[in-house]
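Backbone shape codes
____________________
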Amino acid sequence: MVEDKHVIEALGKVRVVIENGEITEVGPSLGMDYCPMFHAMHKVDELNEEFIRKNIQFRIDDFGMCTPERIIEMDDAITVGVSEILKTNMELGNIDCVVGACDGAGTLLMVNPRVVQGVGARVSGLVSTTPIPEVIQKLEERDSVILDPETAELNQLEGLKMALDMGYKNIAITILPSPMIKEIRHYPVDDDVNVYIFVAHTTGVEYPEVEMMFENADIVTACASKSIRKYTDKYKPYYYGSKVPIFCASEDGHKLLDSRLEKIGKPLSTTDYPRAETDEPRELL
């Protein structure tokens, strides 16, 4: 039997393993036990193992995460998140394609805004995954291209190369904290090609890597990162949100974020510092 195993990090970077549609492992917490987003949405005060298991099970039951029943097209999940920014900018024509990652498919290239939203919304950091033929078929039917359908490899640099080979000019890439961010930024492209890098799932990232991310990315989510808050309090980039801010690491990122905010009628990103620090995740890692 072909292995069916998907490893994600969720809710304070807790390792969760899903095999054949069943949760087989919920790892220990790293110390972050409160998230204002989950408090607002689910009225939960503590991210303990019981809630984490229930929340992951809800994702499996609700939209088929890590199963053949995976729903791949969705409407906006929250007001402003990475997938919402990408979806809006694709609809506006600012982005031609998104190189992302999907459970059951691995790295993929997406050109459908609703697929961008469906793949990215409500899914935490994908550490590893294995192919699910039904998911791959659904994605391909909606014009997505899978980097490696045989292995569901996660490799965003190879995803960029695939997008370039296909002739795309305005390419957004979602990626977890990794030295590959710098490799992607310095990969040679033609003068008429724009590469936009979105870094998510940053809880626990160390300060030197934060500097690298802000030097090379366009959008960086704060998550529960102590180091990102320390860095941004010093350098004061544009941002949106107070509980779990989204930071602009470049002028391109600033434009892409504000395009989303303008479309939904929200105040544009700001450089008002010191930021409000009430109701943040705790403990920051």
Notes: The longest helix spans residues 49-63. The two ends are 39 Å apart (CA to CA). The chain has a mean pLDDT of 94.
